[in-house]
Amino acid sequence: MGPLLLSIPSTVFDNPHITILKNLGEAVKEQLRLLQQLQDIDTQTKEIQLTIEQVPAQLAPAKNDLEKLASMLIIERQQLADTEAWRAEQEDIVNREEEALKNAKAKLQEAKNARDFGAASREIDNKKRSIHDREQEILKVYEALEVGRTKLTGHEEDVEKLRAHVEGEEAKFADTLKELKEKVASAAAGRPAVEGAIDKTLLKRYNTVMHRRGTAVVEVRDGVCQGCHMSLAPQLAIQVARGESIQSCRQCNRLLFVPEAPTAEGEESQAS
């Protein structure tokens, strides 16, 4: 790709706040300055957009944990409900067994012979054994229910704490997103004015390379493109250094510039 000959936009000359460029070298410098300014805007906007995309992901682990714990609570509650239903069913059986025990005792008192007496006695023994065994199981279930309720209460508190944390973080992230979107809008607001001052052909080349490479305007240092880190052909390096036209790297197509050497006044200010 050869050098780009500039046709300076009319807006440059119409704007009373911009000094009319006197020669091509100055025009090239101005266009490169505008391109770098545009790249700064686009880079800042891209970085902010990336941060905006990453914000929801930062909250995802906590939200996933909350969802898992909430699901576990549902299972725990159901298990306790099932155990409670089983306990109630066993107590109902015990009540029926106790009623049957009363009937067996009544039969024992009404027995008229040894056979009826023996049958009633065996029934009484069986009912007592059955009632005793069930009551022991019910007692164990009562203890298990008490432990289960205590654990459930603790887990419910954990879930509520995590939910409050997630809601608080969501509120913070909402404020952060609002601030970031305002920054994007502020950065993008200055883009049209800069675009309008750049040669249209040059702007098209910039946009194409920026889309493909992420950066479109890069420095040449010691004859090396700082975009792809490939050495430039000697003639190309000379052309870039002259600054009479805007050149592109033959490897990555990025637009090239050589930084101006600091002035004596600038060096003195840095030293101080």
Q: What gyration radius follows from the Cα positions, in whole Å?
A: 42 Å
N- and C-termini, Cα separation: 44 Å
- The SS-based structural class is mainly alpha
Strand order of the largest sheet: 2-1-3
Largest sheet, strands/sense/barrel: 3 strands, mixed
Taking pLDDT < 50 over at least 5 consecutive residues as the criterion, the unreliable ranges are 5-22
Helix content: over 70%
Assembly category? single chain
State the helix count. Answer: 7
Overall average residue pLDDT? 86
Structural features:
272 residues; mainly alpha; 2 domains; 7 helices; rod-shaped
Describe the overall structure.
By secondary structure, the protein is mainly alpha-helical. It has two domains: 10-51 and 190-261, Helix Hairpins (Orthogonal Bundle); 58-189. Helices cover 75% and strands 4% of the residues. The chain has helices spanning 10-14, 24-110, 114-189, 191-196, 200-213, 234-242, 264-271, and strands spanning 217-221, 224-225, 255-257. Strand 1 and strand 2 (224-225) form a beta hairpin. The protein is rod-shaped. 11% of the residues are buried.
